[in-house]
Write a structure and sequence with these properties.
Length: about 190
């Protein structure tokens, strides 16, 4: 069951990535809203994290109430970042990821939102520190976030996020790692 869920996430990520790359250049003809660019900073018990993120949100809602006061949206996020492990002599390590994200939000340009997502990540190495070693560089990244859209000229957003990485038991050891993050993004 768990492998089926992660297979679905992996296939969804690949299809959404292909659609984002194949989208027409003209904003009117595209399936996606203009790209959102952002940065996220966070910390966990074993490392700190900093990421740059680009997100493509579908223009159409997946679901909405008849008044559109509650809407469910889908987006794809591509990220690149670095982890700074705590303690020992561990150096900065890289993280590249692709994550489909489901968002619940209101109808207006401003207001609160909540997100969940599960995607795939590739780490530059498996040794986080002397006491934490992953068995694979391939990791799944699960997240839950809550934030606010400001509705300004850049359509700025600020969110807090809980992010968990693990390989879903593909191979042992699978210690996982958690981060608490603050994210800012704007639409361009």
């Amino acid at each position: 069951m768990l492998r089926s869920v992660f297979s679905f996430v992996l296939i969804s990520s690949a299809l959404a990535s292909a659609a984002a790359l194949a989208a027409p250049a003209s904003e009117d003809a595209a399936w996606f809203e203009p790209v959102r660019l952002g940065a996220a900073l966070g910390a966990g018990g074993d490392a700190s994290i900093a990421r740059l993120e680009a997100r493509w949100n579908l223009k159409t809602d997946l679901w909405a109430t008849s008044s559109r006061s509650v809407r469910v949206r889908l987006g794809l996020e591509a990220s690149v970042g670095g982890w700074n492990p705590h303690g020992s002599n561990s150096n900065l390590m890289g993280d590249v990821g692709f994550t489909p994200i489901f968002r619940v939000q209101g109808a207006g340009r401003s207001g609160p939102f909540a997100e969940v997502g599960a995607g795939v990540h590739l780490l530059s190495r498996t040794r986080i520190s002397d006491s934490k070693v992953f068995s694979t560089a391939f990791q799944f990244g699960d997240r839950i976030a809550a934030g606010y859209r400001f509705g300004d000229a850049l359509d700025s957003e600020l969110a807090v996020r809980f992010q968990h990485y693990s390989n879903a038991g593909i191979k042992e050891p699978n210690p996982g790692i958690n981060f608490y993050m603050l994210q800012y993004s704007a639409r361009f």
